[in-house]
Amino acid sequence: MKTQHEITLPHPVIVLGRDDNGKAHASFFAATDALPAARAATLMGMLALRADNDAVRSLLPKLPKGKLFESGKAFVPFVKQDLYKQIAAHLPEADRAKAEMVRSAPADVSQQGHAATPSNVPDDWSKIVVGSLVLATEDPLEGWFEATVIELKPDSVLRLQWRHYLDLPPFNRKLEDVALLHPSMKL
Fold first, then answer.
1. pLDDT > 50? residue 116
2. pLDDT at 60 > cutoff 90
3. Interacting residues of 32 by C-beta distance below 8 A, sequence separation 6+
4. Strand locations in the chain, DSSP E?
5. How far apart are the first and last CA of the chain?
6. pTM for this predicted structure
7. Residue spans of alpha helices (H) in 44-178
């Protein structure tokens, strides 16, 4: 017998979707962040899946933890295609097709509003210039992601923009805190 005043506890949420290149992204957010994470998913053209059953909860340890930003958006890292398909299988039927849709992203824009498309892949730190493509991380356990150098600042500080997360604000990293892509990488 259900009562009229039944209490519903929040559940962790998985945010998932594809970027403008069709790459799979997914991460989990704790139950305390469930509502803002669901809002971020909507804002970013992604989906939110409540981990309200054992099958979905069993996927949480396989996922990186997402990060919420003051802008209302979230950092949702790449995941392997197989894992993404496992998660998407738990979506309501109406959302499964949406999970496979490629999200269209705005053109790369630097802080000044000029094109910031990567122009080179340096093979040495001394060759990093504005437009270079490097790797950066929020936390080494979350992985390294492509970032474009949009400004060279004093004291070996680089102003970077995530290459595939254009809606996130630019950020600074010291030169020694970025990595280079393999020299065979071609754009």
1. no
2. yes
3. 10
4. 13-18, 24-29, 47-50, 67-68, 74-75, 133-136, 145-153, 157-162, 171-174
5. 61
6. 0.57
7. 54-57, 81-88, 93-99
